[in-house]
Design brief:
The protein has 360 residues and is of the alpha/beta class. The protein folds into three domains: 4-38 and 52-69 and 105-145 and 234-288, Rossmann fold, CATH 3.40.50.720; 151-231; 292-354, no CATH class. It is built from eleven helices and 15 strands. The strands form three sheets. The protein has a seven-stranded mixed β-sheet. Strands 8-2-1-9-15 form a five-stranded parallel β-sheet, with helices on one face. Helix 1 (12-23) packs parallel to helix 5 and helix 7 (290-304) packs across helix 10 (336-349).
Amino acid sequence: MTEKIKIAGAGISGLIAAINLAKAGYEVEIYDSAKDSGQRFSGDFQGIENWSYKQDALDFLKDINIEPNFDYNGVDKHEIWAPGEIQKEFVFSRPIYYLVKRGADSDCLDQALKKQALNSGVKIFYNHPIKREEADIVATGPVLNDSVIDGFVSGYVFKTDIGNINIAIFDNKYAPRGYSYFFVHNSLATIATCIFKNFNKIDEYREKTLELCKKRKHFKMGDVRRFSGSGNFFLPRIPKDRKIYIGEAGGFQDYLFGFGMRYAMVSGYYAARSIIEGKDFYKICKKEIFPKMRTSVVNRFIFALLSNRTYKWLIGKYGEGLKDQVKFAGKLYNSRIIRKILFPFVKIFYKKHIKDPRNV
């Protein structure tokens, strides 16, 4: 008799877990409270990070049985803006991340994974949430309430008349303790600000970012849509019943810049493998995921200490003498020394922010 697996949540992590389980012969059902996958998003660009792992993200997708049947753009050239009119372009040895669309449109990552899941025999029930007690895998997205919001993003998606560009802005005038970004790919653009404090001023920072980008790049805007979203980060506590939580529901997210898609993919895949191979999911995570998450907490702490003067100096000097900037960035996420020496102290400082808000 084929074993049935129930998954709560039809986002990235849930769909990847479902695809791998279905291909291994399991009967898989996904239940989601939304009317479709990707409903949280507005067709805005986000990045699948490609620096904290040695393996390229596209090769990783192949290894976890996922086809790249979605629109993507490998970013190996990137502008960074800093205070003092600094605008510097970096060229990387491989893509530093892969730009993808998020949302319910057919060319978005979310819909591409949905299609693969359905083709693999997965049954998806939208507008049909289930309690976490009824699910074998919980992938219901971020744990959100006013007391646990750690980051807020707001921006615009629009059509434009300029060529492809990838810009990150590090300046506390536009994003205190955070960053702003401007992506254009195939005449579609995303401009947004991501902040980690002063959430009540997000509209002000977003408009300042838009004004700066218009001043420097001179572009038109059509079919404009505004979007916003909030998120939280926490270091997960292993549930007493060891139920499998993945993606943002499990706290699998980068605390430095909020990148979470690769963590979602990794956790979804390991969830499937743990069931298929009869292994403990959290033992796998302790070895493969938790160390990078702890390091991201340390990296967030260091980044939060930086001032505009430091941004100016770092970005003005960064890259000189470095043969491989992607490799250097990867070291920041794989340094045992950084994690072992600093993490115990940073953990105390961020105690409130990294506390697991789930009742598990």
